[in-house]
Amino acid sequence: MSSTPEPGEFVTRLTEDEITALYAAGRPRKWERGATICTEGDVSDWVLVLTSGRVKVSSHTEGGSEVVLAVRGPGALLGEFAAIDGLPRSATVTALEPVEGVTIRDFSGYLHDHGRVAVMLMQMVTGKLRDADRKRIEYGAFDTTGRVATRLLELAERYGEMSNGAVRVALPLSQDELAGWTGASREAVSKALRSLRDRGLIETGRRRVIVHDMEGLRKRAR
After folding, report:
1. Is the keyword Ribosomal protein in the record (predicted)?
2. Considering the domain boundaries, does residue 101 fall inside one?
3. Tens place of pLDDT for every residue, the chain, 222 residues?
4. How many CA atoms lie within 13 A of 180 on its CB side?
5. In angstroms, rounded to a whole number, what is the distance separating the alpha carbons of residues 185 and 144?
6. Do 149 and 77 fall within a single domain?
């Protein structure tokens, strides 16, 4: 379980002084794997900065099926929308593994005192909206195998570790969760994984994926 902030995440964009002030404004928290950190529709005013572990951000359709919106790791900022606009939580955050973080209640006050961070946060929010648009395009333009390949490529690039010439990813997602992340059924995801295995691109096991051909997976993702 990594505690090194992921490149590009919120904490990596802060100065040491800004990080010190942020953590001083909050308190440390821990959650076990499977714990619900916050729930869609709840009204609360705190944000969470992850310091270790990974979480999934998800929402539910009217029919009750889960849609996974993102997987986030160390350094990520979660819950900023509700903390800023005061509206109910727009998604549920669940621990995919043991998670540690710092919760900050007066996040608006922190932003008021650190104007540079407020501007940077606006840029990050814009990036999230662009990413959401990109995923909507994927759903319409790619088949299920292409979407699965795209998500596995993302996980390999963010969390993969080199091992004997391959990239090993300790995958914290079940096939049901991967289906929710790709907008497909579990059966379709299972078929897509089998197709990628048959091509020799990946190897799968219990909550892990080994990518044997990153370039081949990248081409299939396109």
Report:
1. no
2. yes
3. 557 888 889 999 999 999 999 999 999 999 999 999 999 999 888 999 999 999 999 998 877 788 888 899 999 999 998 888 888 998 999 999 999 999 999 999 999 999 999 999 999 888 887 877 776 666 666 788 998 999 899 889 888 889 888 999 876 778 888 888 888 888 999 999 999 999 999 999 887 899 999 999 999 987
4. 19
5. 9
6. no
135-159 CB burial, b ≥16 within 10 A, e <16: beebeeebebbbbbbbbbbebbeeb
pTM: 0.77
Domain count, the chain: 2
Instruction: In whole angstroms, give the CA distance from residue 132 to residue 19.
Output: 27
Residue numbers of the domain that contains 51: 10-138
Query: Which DSSP symbol is given to 7?
Result: T
